[in-house]
Specification:
The structure is a single chain. The protein has nine helices and no strands. The chain has 261 residues and is mainly α. Among the domains are: 83 residues, no CATH class; 81 residues.
């Protein structure tokens, strides 16, 4: 049991000396953590630059523009192209790795736990973004294909139906991405079921309002064909000895004699 403090000066000196001794003992670890942070910041920036250059040489930006991903990013007010976004993810992922190493060097357990959680979440986030990009492209293809087919068939509401096809396809991508990152999976499933029901109802209304003239024309044609068949069945048979029946059998009917006065 420590002796009671009777001298304030001695107590202050003892506390300050203990603090400096702890600082000097932790100084190598702190310096190592600082060196790791500085080197990590520089190395991650250089690696991100190399990744962006390699992606541009591989013409990933051109492929993103052709697939519609660049247009989607512009509509989302993202002022960066696909190579720069990927390079940014790589840079910050590397920096988080170096931050984790520095935190473990100085035995900061709380920071290490949080950084580990973030590092485990980033790959799932990247996969979710890839899923969204693929389904955005598929949704665009579905919209263009459905609109072309419906306009060729003469449907008046082709634009609305093609938009519904885009929403439904992209909705599948949103659900898949949310499942990948594990964000409120049950709630997302309920919302997607409601979205599918709304899309089905809207599709039925659009098709019913846009195709009612076509359906009425088809129904009129069927009724006219049915009435013509019924009228032919009700027509009376021709007598056996009539000239029409004889001509129908291929026989010549003699003409009636004429008399002159």
């Amino acid at each position: 049991m420590p002796a009671p403090v009777t001298d304030i000066g001695t107590a202050l000196f003892t506390g300050i000396a203990a603090a400096f001794m702890a600082l000097f003992a932790a100084l190598p670890a702190i310096l190592a953590a600082l060196v790791l942070l500085v080197l990590g910041w520089i190395i991650s920036g250089a690696v991100a630059g190399l990744v962006e250059r390699a992606l541009r040489l591989a013409r990933v930006d051109v492929a993103a523009e052709r697939s519609g991903i660049a247009a989607t990013l512009q509509r989302a007010q993202v002022h960066a192209d696909v190579p720069r976004i990927i390079a940014g993810f790589v840079k910050w992922y590397a920096r988080l790795v170096f931050i984790l190493m520095a935190a473990e060097a100085v035995h900061l357990t709380a920071i290490s736990t949080v950084v580990n959680m973030v590092l485990g979440f980033i790959p799932n986030l990247l996969v979710a973004l890839v899923i969204l990009g693929v389904f955005a492209w598929l949704a665009g293809v579905a919209r263009n294909a459905s609109q072309g087919a419906l306009e060729g068939a003469g449907v008046s509401n082709a634009g609305a139906i093609s938009t519904l096809a885009y929403v439904a396809t992209f909705g599948f991508g949103v659900v898949a991405a949310a499942t990948q990152i594990g964000v409120a999976t049950t709630l997302i499933d309920i919302m997607f079921a409601g979205l599918i029901a709304a899309v089905a109802l809207a599709f039925g209304l659009a098709f019913g309002l846009g195709g009612r003239e076509e359906a009425a024309g088809i129904w009129r044609d069927l009724r006219s064909q049915a009435s013509s068949v019924g009228n032919g069945a009700k027509r009376a048979p021709v007598p056996t000895g009539s000239p029409e029946r004889a001509q129908g059998n291929g026989k010549q009917v003699p003409a009636e004699p004429t008399y002159t006065r």
